[in-house]
């Protein structure tokens, strides 16, 4: 075989394996998310990972970073242009429309899953990453904006993150107000054209609001002095924004109004927000969202107001790790290691394990498999993290007992009747 034929195949850059040592943190996070969604009466929806390319081009916008340079787009065997979803909102709207979920009704939906963007991989930025998203349809007033923000805030509280994140808030106004502001802004940027970097010059025609988002320090002063969208809002948007702020005040949720927060996607109107942290370096946005009242109609549906957000799971897990906020219990140690002492007792051990699992659904029991000497069996028990080992040899099988050994505490081993074992373990282990 040629050298290239034996070269090890590796994962694609920016697409990560989630190893067994990582999963407890993810499960801890995912369980909290599921509880919160339940408590706020949001329903789960699952969409395909692949959609027609046109869906994203039409919703996210042709001149956004995502559509211009980040999408994984390919032709399938029929010659159709398909794209791995770079975000969930477009697919969620598509699914809701397709199944009549927006017909004379409101919806509060959530989803989670992988998203794909061809970006430069770095800490907190990957090519396959995961989001939890929330989308609501059919609500016009600021109460639902507040509700989705409060939902996210409660998740931070449950995770112990609330003190470590900041809510940034802005309003983009109506499409008309934004169009008028755009002219003012372009005129201002043209006056300061020599200060614009290459990226910004390119955006001057296509997406001038995005320039406000630039992190280039050389442009900071000029951007700070730029005319602000907040001063150009329409009356109804001002009222909406003021009511939202009053609701957040009443709920005790602090925020910073950031007039330069514009978000990278075309579909937003009125409220936009981000939750940011300073604990992760430059990839500091852990959750972002806002109102997108025009999108349903833009995708061919009957107009329906909409509000949603998406959070980046990798960044949140990184934050939980950095701040050491995952409790030990969540790291999932096994309770019991059950072993036959010799090969003739293997079947008896297997049967006893099944009996215990049927009787004690909350028990985490690891059955020894793979034979070995007594010493190597005990070594595996020790390595298993279990607190208790149950030993089953020929004597125990004959007497219908097991030997219970404490692996972490200095306590005498006991002989327990198999008939009383479930009750004993229940008292010992299951709190
Ligand atoms: P950024 O400015 O960081 O590129 P974005 O505006 O492109 O973010 P959104 O499309 O709003 O991000 O996605 C919502 C959240 O998803 C982000 O706040 C972030 O937490 C997460 N996210 C976005 N892109 C990535 C990525 N490539 N890798 C990991 N997480 C990501
Ligand atoms: Mg991005």
Give a quick precis of the structure.
Helices cover 38% and strands 20% of the residues.
Could you explain how this protein is built, in words?
This protein is of the alpha+beta class. The chain has two domains: 23-173 and 233-322, Bira Bifunctional Protein, Domain 2 (BirA Bifunctional Protein, domain 2), CATH 3.30.930; 333-430, Rossmann fold (3-Layer(aba) Sandwich). Helices cover 38% and strands 20% of the residues. It has an eight-stranded mixed beta sheet. It has a five-stranded mixed beta sheet with strand order 13-12-14-15-16, sandwiched between helices. The protein is elongated, with a radius of gyration of 28 Å. 34% of the residues are buried. Adenosine-5'-triphosphate binds next to β6, β10, β11 and α12.
Topology of helices and strands:
Blueprint lengths: L2 H4 L16 H17 L3 E2 L5 E3 H8 L4 H6 L1 E4 L5 E4 L4 H10 L8 E10 L11 E10 L4 H18 L6 E6 L3 H17 L6 H9 L13 H5 L10 H16 L5 E2 L11 E8 L8 E7 L3 H4 L7 E7 H10 L13 E5 L5 H14 L5 E3 L6 H10 L4 E5 L1 H6 L1 E6 L7 E4 H11 L3
Parallel strand pairs: 1-5, 7-8, 12-13, 12-14
Antiparallel strand pairs: 2-4, 3-4, 5-6, 6-11, 7-9, 9-10, 10-11, 14-15, 15-16
Helix pairs in contact: 2-6, 6-10
Bound molecules: adenosine-5'-triphosphate and magnesium ion.
Magnesium ion (MG) binds next to loops.
